[in-house]
């Protein structure tokens, strides 16, 4: 039912959306999965190498936290700018640049002679991730046919999740084999495959409405806010409530308020606050914060626990997490389709609760734990929760805005996810009472791990409650008129509103001028005819009809006699 994407957002050649069943659609999904999996893989593959990195470089726990968070900091702080660059200059072009940048930074990480160089190279990796991550999902949303998007996003989410989940296994194999530096070198051959395929098979798309200056100030303020708060959280266990902690924390909060004020007043902000006028978009991003904070904390601490407390080798620790990988691989695409069929509200409520139960079960992974009895059940429950929540979460975010803002929406959601993981990795050791040398002692780390998992579970329960109270069951349905059901009558989108099936259709109302069109419509807005519009519709009330697909701004159907059109 959804129409073609607009102008420059169409695939070249026939100007039509690409079906997932044709080779072009499959190549596109393969390329975007491979590119985004590099970033997702690297965010977890490093975790299993942390004990060996600490031993090799003589690092304490704060250095290990920064090894993870330097990457997450630049990724979260700049990912919105990366989405804007893709919308302006071409999503494929920026995606390819990001893949190349990421691979070169990975090479620098593998060659790092000390902890300082490693942390700096990890920050450079995050910049590459900020360029490639939003473009991968935006390409799917802007090129794939609307009828296939849910399945394509399910595949993207599923295989991307597999990339994140397989990271500990791959990292363990590399750490116990050629060494921890190869967890970074592995990205170079992946990029060598991804770039040629993208250049040959992926069509270029962009947002023809993207213009103006880039909000570099906003990007710097956002990154500085996250950096200062992260520094304060990591330093707090060692330095306590000293000026070295309090001053960065207060400065970070102050810069956060300045960031919001700047974005509100700028003509071309990096984060247009109008995007949050979609209540669904705001709600789903709140759920994202909860879910990915818990995921970030879990994957950071659990692999350390398996090595430090249970006594596994790096490879055994990575292999232990394979059940989550297998479940994501087998079921994520079906989860995307299920979310489309029954709506996202139930999956976004049940999924976090399952994940919370899995994390509580993981507290049994202590000294002398038996894998099949104490660890495997936790990972199976956690894996099922991830299957249920990941694909519908991503699809709902994109369904909440118009296609032309797919890069921005993807960037905002990814920024929320990465920022949540960043704060969790910084805050959990503080909240659980984990000292700088805790990871060197099985008893000390085991005690703090058992205190950290209920915290993660509580955050997931909060996410489930938010989803149940704020996410609509019809958030993934095609956008139409409520409550008349014009879609069922077979009337085209340009037909006049309020007509009964088979009745004569009169002239449609005149289209609003562009200046009168807000970015998102307020929920419950009433059309002149007295009909309710959906909040995802990016058109102003009074157009001939809202699009049948969120953000469908394709060429409208022929007008009725005497009706004039103003381009939007």
TrEMBL record:
Residues 28-475 form the Major facilitator superfamily (MFS) profile domain. One of its GO terms (biological process) is response to antibiotic. GO terms for molecular function: transmembrane transporter activity. It is found in: Cell membrane. It is a multi-pass membrane protein. Its main location: membrane. Pfam families: MFS_1. This is Drug resistance transporter, EmrB/QacA subfamily. It comes from Streptomyces violaceusniger (strain Tu 4113).
């Amino acid at each position: 039912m959804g129409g073609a994407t607009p102008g420059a957002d169409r695939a070249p050649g026939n100007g039509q959306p690409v079906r997932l069943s044709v080779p072009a659609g499959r190549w596109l999904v393969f390329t975007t999965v491979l590119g985004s999996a590099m970033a997702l893989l690297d965010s977890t593959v490093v975790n299993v190498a942390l004990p060996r990195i600490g031993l090799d470089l003589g690092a304490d726990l704060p250095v290990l936290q920064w090894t993870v968070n330097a990457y997450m900091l630049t990724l979260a702080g700049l990912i919105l700018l990366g989405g804007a660059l893709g919308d302006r200059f071409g999503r494929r072009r920026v995606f390819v640049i990001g893949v190349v940048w990421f691979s070169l930074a990975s090479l620098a990480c593998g060659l790092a002679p000390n902890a300082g160089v490693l942390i700096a190279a990890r920050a450079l990796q995050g910049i590459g991730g900020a360029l490639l991550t939003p473009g991968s999902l935006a390409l799917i949303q802007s090129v794939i046919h609307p009828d296939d998007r849910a399945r394509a996003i399910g595949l993207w989410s599923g295989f991307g999740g597999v990339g994140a989940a397989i990271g500990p296994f791959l990292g363990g194999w590399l750490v116990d084999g050629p060494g921890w530096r190869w967890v970074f070198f592995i990205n170079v051959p992946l990029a060598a495959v991804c770039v040629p395929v993208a250049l040959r098979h992926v069509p270029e798309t962009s947002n023809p409405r993207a213009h103006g200056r880039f909000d570099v100030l906003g990007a710097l303020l956002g990154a500085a806010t996250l950096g200062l708060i992260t520094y304060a959280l990591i330093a707090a266990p060692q330095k306590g409530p000293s000026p070295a902690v309090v001053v960065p924390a207060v400065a970070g909060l102050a810069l956060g308020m300045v960031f919001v004020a700047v974005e509100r007043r700028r003509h071309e902000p990096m984060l247009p606050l109008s995007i949050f006028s979609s209540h669904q978009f705001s709600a789903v991003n709140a759920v994202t914060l909860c879910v990915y904070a818990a995921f970030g904390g879990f994957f950071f601490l659990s692999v350390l626990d398996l090595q430090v407390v249970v006594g596994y080798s790096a490879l055994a620790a990575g292999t232990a997490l394979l059940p989550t990988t297998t479940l994501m691989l087998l079921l994520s695409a079906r989860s995307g389709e299920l979310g489309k069929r029954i709506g996202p509200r139930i999956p976004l409520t049940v999924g976090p609760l399952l994940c919370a139960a899995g994390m509580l079960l993981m507290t049994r992974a202590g000294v002398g734990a038996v894998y099949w009895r104490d660890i495997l059940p936790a990972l199976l429950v956690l894996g099922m929760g991830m299957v249920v929540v990941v694909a519908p979460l991503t699809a709902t975010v994109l369904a909440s805005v118009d296609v032309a803002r797919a890069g921005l929406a993807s960037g905002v959601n990814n920024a929320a996810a990465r920022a949540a993981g960043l704060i969790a990795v910084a805050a959990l050791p503080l909240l659980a009472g984990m000292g700088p040398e805790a990871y060197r002692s099985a008893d000390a780390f085991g005690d703090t791990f058992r205190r950290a998992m209920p915290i993660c579970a509580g955050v997931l329960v909060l996410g489930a409650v938010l989803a149940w109270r704020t996410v609509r069951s019809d958030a993934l349905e095609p956008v139409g008129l409520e409550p008349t059901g014009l879609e069922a009558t077979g009337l085209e989108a340009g037909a006049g509103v309020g007509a009964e099936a088979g009745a004569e259709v009169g002239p449609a109302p005149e289209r609003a001028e562009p200046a009168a069109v807000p970015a998102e419509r307020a929920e419950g807005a009433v059309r002149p005819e007295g009909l309710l519009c959906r909040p995802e519709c990016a058109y102003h009330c009074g157009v001939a009809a809202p699009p049948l697909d969120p953000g469908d701004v394709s060429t409208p159907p022929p007008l009725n006699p005497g009706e004039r059109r103003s381009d939007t």
